[in-house]
Amino acid sequence: MKTQTVAILLVALIGFSVAQKLHHEVDFITYASDNVIEVDGNVGDDIHVRIKENPTTGFNWIIAKESPLFKGLKTEQEKFIRQQSNGVFFPGTGGYKLMKFSIQDGGDKIIDLVQARPWELNTFKDTQGLINWTEVFQSNHAIDRKQIQVKVKA
Q: In this predicted model, what pLDDT tens digit does every residue of 32-51 receive, in sequence order?
């Protein structure tokens, strides 16, 4: 009887530890000089990203979702938070963008974030209206790029 109870508890404990979903934080505000950050994760984990943005300049952080290395990730949230002082928002000031991604399947993945004026990327669209990110990255187009390399454990 004791052996069965211990076995059941052990199986429950192992199942609980395997089923836990982790939340990985990537903060490009604190680590602004980093252009590449690595995340080790599992299927089902979330990746939370925070990055400075000022859309009043026309520049936005754009997720390169059409990139082949983005497959297996899902964008759960994209939200801009305006900067404020004592509860007051000031026109023209920036803030930061919050993004949340979930890992859907195995294999290494890359989240490319590109700061650009969205209309300037129209020249890189194919006949289906999808941006060819390889051409963008190989061009002399002035963009800022941050990358999250996601290593998904088997």
A: 899 999 999 999 999 999 99
